[in-house]
Amino acid sequence: MSCGISKAGFLEQEAPRLENWLNKNQHGQMTYMENNFDKRLNPTLLVDDAKSVVSLLLNYYPLEIQNPDSYKISKYAYGQDYHFVIKEKLKEFLSSIQSSIGEVSGRAFVDSSPVLEKAWAAKSGIGWIGKNSNLITQKVGSFYFIAELIIDLELEYDNATTDHCGTCTACIDACPTEAIVAPYIVDGSKCISYFTIELKENIPAEMKGKFDDWAFGCDICQDVCPWNKFSKAHKEPLFNPNPDLLSISKKDWEEITEETFKVVFKNSAIKRTKFEGLKRNINFLK
Predict the structure, then answer these.
(1) pLDDT by residue (tens digit) across 192-248?
(2) CA-to-CA distance for 149 and 54, rounded, in angstroms?
């Protein structure tokens, strides 16, 4: 767990970037990204009298990974849905702040509200935004969830860290769909994660053969990042996978029933794509 604190206010540098990204339609069918534009850039519009953004990172790098003869799912989806796991931890954290300090008002956010998590985490110095647009840390890489507490308490604020990507282009070179269109800019509508999770219709035929067996999400641009040599296994039991998940073969995936899907992926983020979506993805990969 890492923690950094920033002064709540308008994200001046992010505004033109977000506007440009939306104008180029690089969010594809993720129309929710167009909503609450002002709130995304200014947490004081989300939380009354907000003074501080407390950014937190929680490691999800697994001890074991899937059987190599398998369709792949992103490591973040191995265990229980992180939204629920982290929300509980944030509520406990806010309660402990209130117990020790007194009346503090605020809200907890985990990747489900209009908050630019990576921008706030970078602003608070717990990492930098890499060329693959993920938040990267020198000590442990990028296999982290980001969450925030936005509170009405003035605190001491941290400073941003420097960018340590240097001349490396490993993530750009490795992306099979060329979704990293320029350093630090990802065209979300070309990303394997977008196609396998967000896209509701059929995957475009021209993408056939480019998914490298990814059936839910994609970790390629993180797997090739040199900073992820420093990743260490998490210690959160709720992020441990169902043992069946690690041993499932391609044949098992192809024959999976809705009943098995519900058992293996109970409380999992994979339920976002629903059984029909997962089957669509697997059929596309066959």
Answers:
(1) 999 999 999 999 999 999 999 999 999 999 999 999 999 999 999 999 998 888 999
(2) 5
Helices (H), 166-242: 170-174, 192-193, 220-223
- Return left, alpha or beta for 245; rule: phi > 0 is left, psi -120 to 50 is alpha, else beta: alpha
Element (H, E) at 182: strand 180-182
Tell me whether strands 2-7 and 52-59 are parallel, antiparallel or unpaired. antiparallel
Burial readout 27-41 (b: 16 or more C-beta within 10 A, e: otherwise):
bbeeeebeeeeeebb
Token code pair at residue 202: 């059929």
User: In angstroms, rounded to a whole number, what is the distance separating the alpha carbons of residues 216 and 197?
Assistant: 6
**111 in catalytic set:** yes
pTM value is 0.92
Q: Can you tell me the distance from the alpha carbon of 273 to that of 216, in angstroms, rounded to the nearest whole number?
A: 8
Chain mean position to CA 71: 20
Q: Are 188 and 26 in contact (CB under 8 A)?
A: yes
Quote the radius of gyration of the chain (alpha carbons, Å): 19
The answer to whether the beta carbons of residues 83 and 110 sit under 8 Å apart is yes
Q: Choose the catalytic residue: 49, 81, 111, 252.
A: 111
